[in-house]
Amino acid sequence: MNKSEKQSKFSAYKNIIQYHGVINGVRRIVDQFCQNDWYDIKNGTNFSQILSGDQYHGSLESKNSAVMHYQPVYTAAIKKPLQDMVKNQPVVGASSTCFVDLGCGRGKALHIAKSTLQHIIPIGIELNEELLEDAKKNLASVRSYQKDSHSVFVNANVNDVDYNDLLADFDVVIVFNKNSFDKATTDNTLRKIIEASKGKSLFYIYSNPVFEDLFVQHQCVFTMKGWHKNWNTKVFKINEQEL
Prior knowledge:
43% of the residues lie in helices and 16% in strands. It has helices at residues 3-20, 22-43, 53-56, 65-68, 75-88, 108-116, 129-139, 143-147, 163-166, 183-196, and strands at 97-102, 121-125, 152-154, 172-177, 201-207, 219-224, 233-237. The protein has a seven-stranded mixed β-sheet. The termini are far apart.
């Protein structure tokens, strides 16, 4: 990390303290470094920043610099559930398994999933074309990806995806959602994915599960809690009668 990058990181950490206060700010900085900055250094990736909501929708006038300078912490919220699924859900070890990230951004969830379960096929769905291109570059740094370069990237709104076609070739479907959408979108995509997954094994990793009531009829097979909402994760095994 050169001098300019170090100064940029220091400025980002300072913004976090100013925006969140000392106690939560320090917690966020520790998580930011351990889960995000160090992850980039170790893997040669670029996940250290996210776009603000205004930038994402095309505006460059966002004033919320604190949000612009760090990304949500969810490395463990993906890796630990996947590790638990491999241990307790034998079907996840099948060769025809895909990992679908709804709103993949720069592809960190895809990178973690592919690094954790080398046999999976990553599928990233992202409306922002620039972020999707970054996701492709970042995913290429996974060592196992060099041997198996098959992946799928869809530049579209998650509501508009043809999930029947997207999931046709897989026996096991793992979906990841970091509470990126409103309730209507979450419900709509869940129903479409369930319909497209008939005859398959379907798991849904839901980080910060705000709309957990949509899953009341499904079995929760994993729960993780932490000090911040992005640490709170549940994995639902979609009931076979729904499929």
